[in-house]
Amino acid sequence: MAALAVAIVAVSTSAILIRFSNAPSGPMAFWRVTLTLLLLAPLSLRSGAEFQKFDRRDLLSALLAGLALAAHFATWFESVDKTTVAASVTLVTTQPAFVAVGAYFLFGESLSRRSLAGIGVALAGSAVMSLDGLLGGTTAPEPVLGNLLALAGAVLAGLYVLAGRSVRQRVNLVPYVTVVYVVCAGGLLAYSLALGDPVLAYPPREWLLFLGMAIGPGLLGHTVVNWALAHVESSVVSVSFVGEPVGSTVLALVILGEVPGALTLAGGAIVIGGIYLTARGRR
């Protein structure tokens, strides 16, 4: 539980670090994933024999998961620059709702009344948050587009979770994330090169931010969350992620001086309630 608390604080810094960086979203996400891979390299080398547990189906699933994660990073990093931190982080955290829907259609998992209610509440909250952009209640440059990109990031994060769920039942954490991160980094590199964004030409300040993203949200955040899943009920882990938008909003207020609009705050509270209901309604 202590590790989980540290992880939620760590992932809450992600949007702040993105805002501090002047790099395009593609290279920024590429270096976050690549540096996380380098930090995990000693563990990956020690797990050499575990890679043999991958069969063809597992490799295809890991490939899909890595590409979905790359697309998630690309859309969400772009979202942070276009809408408020509060809106972007809250909307991307609606991932459990899309996982629940995807698990119903792909795996035949039943949806409890609580989960259905939670999905409906989360979507209603998302609509309320988008009204802030439509009515001019925020100073964000492109709030509507930013909110849509954050929702797209949530859908892609849900696809990443669903693609890797069966693999994780047979393959340990480090080999799995190593393969997924390699595919993800490759996808982000191709995306950056296709847009003509520079990959290497950055000042020392940017490299420190890239390293901070890898150590904080990458290593201490999502990797620790995956480790915690072996020791804490998955429903507890899912619900704990509602702390991320709260933490990010507070950090944005204190560090960036960014005050979210009234509808963003109201809609965000509704979304968090919906995420809580969805997560508690699923095993």
Automatic annotation (TrEMBL):
Protein origin, superkingdom: Archaea
InterPro entries: EamA_dom (IPR000620), EmrE-like (IPR037185)
Pfam short name (any one): EamA
TM helices/strands, residue ranges: 30-47, 59-77, 83-107, 119-138, 144-162, 174-195, 207-229, 236-256, 262-279
A single cellular component GO annotation: membrane
Residue ranges of every copy of the EamA domain listed in the record: 2-130, 145-278
Assigned keywords, A-Z: Membrane, Transmembrane, Transmembrane helix
Entries under PANTHER family matching the protein: ACYL-MALONYL CONDENSING ENZYME-RELATED, EAMA DOMAIN-CONTAINING PROTEIN
Name assigned to this protein: EamA family transporter
Lineage: Archaea, Methanobacteriati, Methanobacteriota, Stenosarchaea group, Halobacteria
